[in-house]
Every structure is written in structure tokens, then in C-alpha cells.
Amino acid sequence: LRLFVILLASFAAWYLGYFVAAHVPQNTISIAALQEIGKKPVVRAPAPKRQKCDHWSPCPPGNFAYRILSGGGKQRRPKICFEDELALYGEQRNVMCVPRITSCVIDSTDNSRQMMDFIRNAPKGALILMASQDDVSTRLKNDAKKLIEELGSKEIKNIKFRSSWVFLAAKGFKLPDNIQKEKINHSDQTKNRYKGWPAEIQIEGCIPRNLI
Hints:
By secondary structure, the chain is an alpha+beta fold. It folds into 2 domains: about 1-40, no CATH class; about 50-210, no CATH class. It has helices at about 1-25, 30-35, 110-120, 140-150, and strands spanning about 65-70, 80, 85-90, 100-105, 125-130, 165-170, 180-185, 200-210. Helix 3 (about 110-120) packs parallel to helix 4. This is FAM3B protein. Belongs to the FAM3 family.
């Protein structure tokens, strides 16, 4: 009796397996599908959206985005970005990008007269964005440095040989105190990123449109 029960159960299991295999489509169940059973769902964050001037986060509505990057060594040229437009890059000089926005770079030539004309000719209500390339300390005369100081620079008189320097100024109006306006990085042979030059530096932020 016990042997009969075992044979009957085996036959029933075989028949049930045959029945299922004959009536269930083969592509219904796959090994890959079985392997996915029990796995936790993976939640993937969406790709971050690129912001103006490569900011990490967007400027609030009603603001302009800006980013000023100094030069680094001989090959890395400065960049000045305003509202996602490169107002200055590489060899360009004194480029008018958009109305009432003026940018310039101070490089290895004597730019004192050019810089003074640049500042004096900028209209009231203009933003002035500056970045250094090579050496500002020896290439700008004191009269030019004084004009930059009058624009609000606190570091122009402290610049040393091959210091990296960036500056944001407003002519004829005052920028909010919480806006990043100036930064400097002095050359130090024990810390310089490039041979004879410190690492490039940058400032970035958002400027309320109603100020301009």
C-alpha cells in the first residue's frame, strides 16, 4: 500500500508538470525573470541639469549668473561668463558681451593705459568683470591700480608677482554685500600647481537684474 501511494504521487507530479509545460507559453517565465524575483528595486537619480555658467545650483528668478576664472600658468587662459555667454575667453580683450556688461583680462603686456581707458569709458550702471593672466603686480602702474581700488577692490594693492586675481565691480551703483566680488591666490613655490604659477581661482554668483 505504501509503495502504491508513492507511485501514485510520483505519477501525479509528473503529469502535473507535463500539463503545465504543455499549456504555459515558453516565453512567459525566463531565468532572468526568476533571478529578478526578490531583488530590491534600484532608484536612480535623474541626471543633473546643467546650470548657467556651470553653477552647481540655478540662480533665483530675476537674477543674472556670472563666473570669473583667472588664468593658470601660460596655457590656461582666463574665462569670464555672464548669463551663460562667454564674455571673454582666451585671446579676446575688452569684449562688450551684452548691454552694460564689460570684461577684460590683464596679461603679460603693459596694460596700464588701456586699463585706465577701459574703466573711464565704462558707462555708469555697468558691471565690470576682471581676471588676471600672468602678472598684474608689475604690468599695471599705480594710477591704474588706484582706479581699480576706487571701484571697490580690496586686493589690487596687495597683488604680488604672478598672483591669480579675479574681481567683480559695479560702476555708479553698489552691489549687495552677500555677492562674491573678489578673490586672490598668491604664488608660493611650495604650493604652486603650475611651475612658477599658482592655481587658477574663480568667483561666481547671482546678481539681481533690477540693479542693472
